[in-house]
What does this fold into?
Amino acid sequence: MKNSKLVIGLMSGTSLDGVDAALVEISGFGSQAIVNFKHFTSNPFPDEIRKILLKVSSGEPVSSGIISNLNVLLGQIFSQAVLKLCSECHLTVNQIDLIGSHGQTIFHQSEPRKLWGHTVASSLQIGEAAILVEQTGVTVVSDFRPRDLAAGGTGAPLIPYVDFVLFRDPILGRVLLNLGGIANLTILPPKCQSNQIRAFDTGPGNMLIDDLTRHFSQGEKQFDAQGQQASSGKIIVPVLENLLSDPFFKKKPPKSAGREQFGQCYTKRILAMAELAQEKDIICTATELTVRTIADAIFTNSDNTFELNQLIVSGGGVHNTYLIQRLKNLLPHLEIMTTDDFKIPSDAKEAIGFAILANETFEINANNVPSATGATHPVVLGKISYGQNYRKLRGFN
Amino acid sequence: MKNSKLVIGLMSGTSLDGVDAALVEISGFGSQAIVNFKHFTSNPFPDEIRKILLKVSSGEPVSSGIISNLNVLLGQIFSQAVLKLCSECHLTVNQIDLIGSHGQTIFHQSEPRKLWGHTVASSLQIGEAAILVEQTGVTVVSDFRPRDLAAGGTGAPLIPYVDFVLFRDPILGRVLLNLGGIANLTILPPKCQSNQIRAFDTGPGNMLIDDLTRHFSQGEKQFDAQGQQASSGKIIVPVLENLLSDPFFKKKPPKSAGREQFGQCYTKRILAMAELAQEKDIICTATELTVRTIADAIFTNSDNTFELNQLIVSGGGVHNTYLIQRLKNLLPHLEIMTTDDFKIPSDAKEAIGFAILANETFEINANNVPSATGATHPVVLGKISYGQNYRKLRGFN
It folds into this structure.
């Protein structure tokens, strides 16, 4: 068996932008894994594919044939992404050892519901792995989420295990903070085992700040660049206190947040509460809500059994200088860094993640995080489709 | 590693009756496999599940959520079938080594079509393997057909490989004949390798005889019991000659037939052609068409490089004594037997088949038959989901 593997991760998110592909070199697995990021490439979907995917994933009724054909068609698009990535890296595809493909989520319902006399929660990712195997020859791991759901979990988040592989340190305690629309944390005590990972959504990340900025600028600005608005404003204390009293922030993990909670209705609520206030003060207050709920979550989920030393930030919010400064102020004991400081580009992290998860699956190592998903036990995620390289990869004759 | 495996095969057909489960003991694989049939059980679908499956597979538009939830729900029903089979055999589920699950086909389009700028053929089976793994703990192979389609095949038939494993003989040349609605053959020269298998549909099996019987009895009789009608009738030669001139019968394999070709429109055509004839003569002629096309196909696909010795029949047509007698008359050099003579119950054959195909996949042995499906090359079908027993099964530490 080879000492290290070249693994490609494929991710196409719910934003339906396209498929991201990342190449990493991995040796070992679990807490012993060493991961070197090599290359990342983004492949936008053609418009007509994005449209039909939007239709299907928004729940519009379609025939089973549409879903079946889309499954194969996305398999073809994913294969093209693999071949493009290889060509950009001056590799031939037969130098690749393994592919981890998340697939395109067209449905996700993590709360079990009664259905024809059965209790069902489900998540459906499409992008046929058999097409990837045929067009690349490489062994593929696909379909990660259903296994966690089958074990009673919500099938998400899966990235905390990736954080564990990439950032667990023998000496330092680390917190990973992803500042997307929603903010989420992965807390990694020093020398932690996978069952000591804590990971959950803290609440709004950039979502609220972005929505307010768009509202005040009549859609001209998409986000508060460098936090300029926020930094020139003042916190409206009664509004902040009111928002902080939301029971979600006190809830113990596992917990997840979404647009249904902190989206436009939430923005409207805040605008109503702060009717006479200045725009910059409202944005400042929203920024403070993000910062405070993150800082509080870090405090609440730390205990005196371990020390935390670093906060490693990724996602669009990294560029909000004011927000990051406020985090520094509230968390003076933490060194604030970004995933880029560890040579993991923020954009590439999820695609890298599915390369890492595929490697764990291949090594038959449980790779969900039950404390984050609510699963009743650890499981090996995904399904394996044998490539032409499978025997060699396993070290079989 | 164990010398033999206990493998369960699960099959739910397009008739939407329910899920069939068969238990076999297998040692070895490929031409060296030894398969012992142990038990078979049929599990009808609840009415409401059959109804929704019928809706989905007939192409009625539904939301992606319905398909996603049905995928999980069928996973639960398949798991119940496994547990029931084990209990009927007085086995605990952790004595089972492997499960092969065909899944429920909700779409199958083997002819490639242009779709949003891509050329797509696809087949979609549902019945989530992750649920089977969670509820049984056993390693599962699922999703067999897409890999053959990805290799340019039609994703069907898959049973010829099973015929090869079960009936290939070092000395005898054998023909497997399945007399379902459509008749299909698998020709196994003595000592053949998997690339020497010939398998294809010959044309109507019972479909035409059954349709005519239903027509003449105003739906009272479903089939010509023991071929009584046919045996009392005479062949209408011009009608038979006309039917035999259909180019399908001359077409070289791979070829497949279906209800769209030999269904009710075909029946109507024959009724029009034989307007003034007696009912029993028309049924006799239809029976002769089935028999002649089978016999002709066996002649056309034999050559003097090997001898054929036995014709092994399965499917409902086994009970049509007259039809079997006519086969004997036309193929006097063949000993006519049934799969039951080999302790393979005809009803259980498909479910047994997916146990055998799963065993081949686990052993990383190609298990499609390119000459039958039209695939450009042999492939290992299916996807593996690891059960708790996977390491032990592989002989890993």
Summary: Chain B has two domains: 4-143+382-394, 169-346. Chain B has 16 helices and twelve strands. Chain B touches chain A through 60 residues (CB under 8 Å). The first strand of chain B starts at residue 4 and ends at 12.
